[in-house]
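[step 3/7] inverse_fold.run input=structure_tokens len=344
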């Protein structure tokens, strides 16, 4: 037993010495094998010797052996960390490389503008209405006062799916659907995709976003139209924005007006401005009083009720506000473009 104790202590000293001289992970592994291998390790062979001991000696010897085993394991573990940790970090992190930039998601500029427009109208008591993108000729044209073969239809380069079905050329058919489904007072805006037969170029796309508005109630006048649109545009851009109304023509409104706002780029002070072509104004909205015939088409009595409607292109407005020179950028999915925009 004394002899056994001395040998255990001797192994411990030898181990400590060997460990102090270990230079890398490989020599640690060798030490581990020498002492802890389940087949022929030092601990294992000492354990074999216990069989010959008397029971009380066996227990003492077992404890000694256990202490040795724990000592070896603990020291090896600590040494292992010292050897491997710095090596691994060096391999994983090359401090000379440029950092990886993490990008936050950003809303698409069209979504950004659509949400801002929606929020302004919601604050005025409007609700948001949606409608189908595949329309019938009736909703897209006829109910809006474009009889068949009416020349105004030529202004809308329509994509037909069949004789009667088409991709809506404007969001205005939703006006008809809303007026069929509910009684005045009606206050809605209709954001959505519309389609025209266009070849993509810097200012045209075959698919783009519009937002349409409609108000129908008793006693609605052109003053309501002006007040609503002025409030809307000043909230969208800024309080002192200059706005003007110009007479225009749309089949479904009478009278009709185009709405211009001052050029956000030159504020009318550069007669060579490329954005407004030196006029100082930029057309931004189409609007007008709902034509009595349109009200009759949906069984609303034009003697009792009147209304106004307006519409604008969302990309066009975003292009003007953000100085985006080419409409095609919106749908090219270039993240460098899309990540740039925020609205306050
Ligand atoms: Zn200008």
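[step 3/7] decode complete -> sequence:
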């Amino acid at each position: 037993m004394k002899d056994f104790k001395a040998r255990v202590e001797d192994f411990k000293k030898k181990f400590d010495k060997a460990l102090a001289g270990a230079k890398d992970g490989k020599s640690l592994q060798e030490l581990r094998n020498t002492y802890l291998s389940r087949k022929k390790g030092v601990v294992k062979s000492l354990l074999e010797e216990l069989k010959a001991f008397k029971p009380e000696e066996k227990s003492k010897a077992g404890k000694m052996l256990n202490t040795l085993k724990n000592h070896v394991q603990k020291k090896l573990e600590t040494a292992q960390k010292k050897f491997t940790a710095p090596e691994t970090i060096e391999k994983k992190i090359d401090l000379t490389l440029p950092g990886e930039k993490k990008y936050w998601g950003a809303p698409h500029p069209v979504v950004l503008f659509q949400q801002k427009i929606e929020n302004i109208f919601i604050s005025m008591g409007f609700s948001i209405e949606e409608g189908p993108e595949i329309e019938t000729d009736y909703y897209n044209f006829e109910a809006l006062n474009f009889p068949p073969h009416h020349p105004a239809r030529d202004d809308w380069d329509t994509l037909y799916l069949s004789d009667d079905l088409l991709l809506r050329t404007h969001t205005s058919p939703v006006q008809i659907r809303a007026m069929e489904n509910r009684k005045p007072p009606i206050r809605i805006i209709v954001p959505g995709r519309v389609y025209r037969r266009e070849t993509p170029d810097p200012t045209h796309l075959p698919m783009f976003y519009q937002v349409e508005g409609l108000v129908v109630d008793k006693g609605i006048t052109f003053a309501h139209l002006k007040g609503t649109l002025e409030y809307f545009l000043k909230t969208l851009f800024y309080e002192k924005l200059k706005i003007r109304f110009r007479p225009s023509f749309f089949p479904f409104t009478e009278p009709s007006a185009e709405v211009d706002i001052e050029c956000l780029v030159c504020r009318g002070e550069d007669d060579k401005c490329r954005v407004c072509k030196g006029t100082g104004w930029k057309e931004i909205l189409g609007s007008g009083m709902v034509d009595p015939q349109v009200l009759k088409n949906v069984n609303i009595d034009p003697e009792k009720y009147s209304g106004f409607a307006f519409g604008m292109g969302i990309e066009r407005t975003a292009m003007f506000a953000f100085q985006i020179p080419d409409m095609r950028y919106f749908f090219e999915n270039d993240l460098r473009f899309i990540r740039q925009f925020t609205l306050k």
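[step 4/7] annotate
The longest strand covers residues 207-217.
The chain has a mean pLDDT of 88.
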